[in-house]
Specification:
Blueprint (H helix, E strand, L loop, with lengths): L4 E6 L7 H17 L1 E6 L1 H8 L6 H14 L8 E4 L5 H11 L3 H5 L2 H9 L8 H4 L1 H11 L4 E4 L4 H18 L7 E4 L28 H9 L20 H9 L2 H13 L4 H27 L4 H27 L6
Parallel strand pairs: 1-2, 2-3, 4-5
Helix pairs in contact: 3-13, 3-14, 4-8, 8-9, 10-13, 11-13
Bound molecules: tryptophan (TRP).
The site of tryptophan has 13 residues, from strand 1, helix 8 and strand 4.
């Protein structure tokens, strides 16, 4: 038996942050060793919500690929491709739509929530409605066995499994039912204001920003709000500075900051300076590799082109079977 296939995709909606690094990238890097890995940029999925302004999607696609590779996702191990380079995904979405009751899509929780909560974008389009169905096509088109996802994506995986069962019932046992694995809970990384790190909160540290930009953000980070003066005792357990430092620093140094913070015998500014040093040190190799890659403007596109070629045989084989079983092949 060959290795199991793992597949995951991300929408190109911005540069990757330190939150992605500990939340996803480290996982992807580990999984590529164990599985036959397919990592793709879900640019069509980005269109579904950002159809009114699509101007950044290409740039974000490129940035995401550079971030992935500089972080150690290895194109020689994982197949890295762009969703829109596999147009059969659209064809398969259309076939899957035949067996999918509209009510199944209407009750997907992320759909309901986002329609209610996101008011600055018009999400009344059909493309956004079929988002989870296109995701089902992404997964089944390469016969993905395992999909590592965050908890929020579980309903999409459940929908995929239901659609697959209905499809197989109607047309024969063709598509595998994928299993979700909850991504090994990567560390939750706080942003500079203590909330979850997110580009939409404006509190993110980007992997590819400069050391100076990182320094500026860290120096203005929030710490324990009860520490007004530097001899006020603080609580490192509620301090985002400590939380990030634990991910990138030397445990002995962190333990020292922990105790002097509690005792009120060292100041936050000093701790910030140390975090700047450690965080920039931690990211230095990534940043150097990324700069090196970015020096060739076609680097990301070459990887995507090669990836698109590499998924092709699996895609063609599956689509041949699907068309045959639905009687839309040449006969
Ligand atoms: N829905 C995923 C997200 O928002 C992106 C995605 C699209 C995906 N297709 C996928 C993830 C297929 C896993 C498998 O993050």
């Amino acid at each position: 038996m060959g290795k199991k296939r793992i597949l995951t995709g991300y929408r190109p909606t911005g540069r990757l942050t330190l939150g992605h690094w500990f939340g996803n990238l480290m996982n992807m890097r580990e999984l590529q060793e164990e599985y036959e890995a397919y990592y793709f940029v879900a640019d069509w999925h980005a269109l579904t919500s950002d159809w009114q302004d699509t101007s950044a999607i290409r740039r974000y696609t490129e940035e995401m690929v550079l971030d992935w590779i500089a972080a150690g996702i290895d194109p020689a191990k994982a197949t890295i491709y762009r969703q829109s380079d596999v147009p059969e995904v659209a064809e398969l979405t259309m076939y899957l739509s035949m067996v999918t009751p509209m009510a199944w899509l209407e009750r997907v929780p992320s759909y309901k929530e986002q329609r209610e909560q996101i008011t600055e974008k018009d999400l009344g389009n059909l493309g956004f409605f079929i988002y989870p169905l296109m995701q089902a096509a992404d997964i089944t088109i390469v016969k993905g066995d395992i999909v590592p996802v965050g908890e929020d994506q579980l309903p999409h995986l459940e929908l995929t499994r239901e659609v697959v069962r209905r499809f197989n019932n109607a047309y024969g046992d063709l598509l595998p039912e994928p299993d979700a694995v909850i991504a090994k809970q990567g560390a939750r990384v706080p942003g500079t204001d203590g909330r979850k790190m997110s580009k939409s909160y404006g509190n993110a540290i980007y992997l590819s920003e400069t050391a100076e930009e990182t320094a500026k953000k860290v120096m203005s980070m929030m710490t324990d709000p009860a520490r007004k003066r530097k001899d006020d005792p603080g609580d490192p357990d509620i301090c985002p500075l400590h939380e990030i430092h634990k991910l990138v620093g030397d445990p002995d140094v962190i333990a020292e900051f922990d105790s002097c913070c509690r005792a009120g015998s060292c100041g936050c500014v000093m701790h910030k300076r140390k975090l700047v040093e450690d965080l920039n040190g931690y990211l230095a190799e990534f940043r150097a590799r990324r700069a090196e890659l970015a020096a060739d403007p076609s680097a990301a596109w070459k990887v995507l082109e090669e990836g698109a070629q590499r998924v092709r045989p699996a895609v063609e084989e599956l689509m041949g079977e699907v068309r045959r079983s639905m009687h839309v092949d040449a006969g």
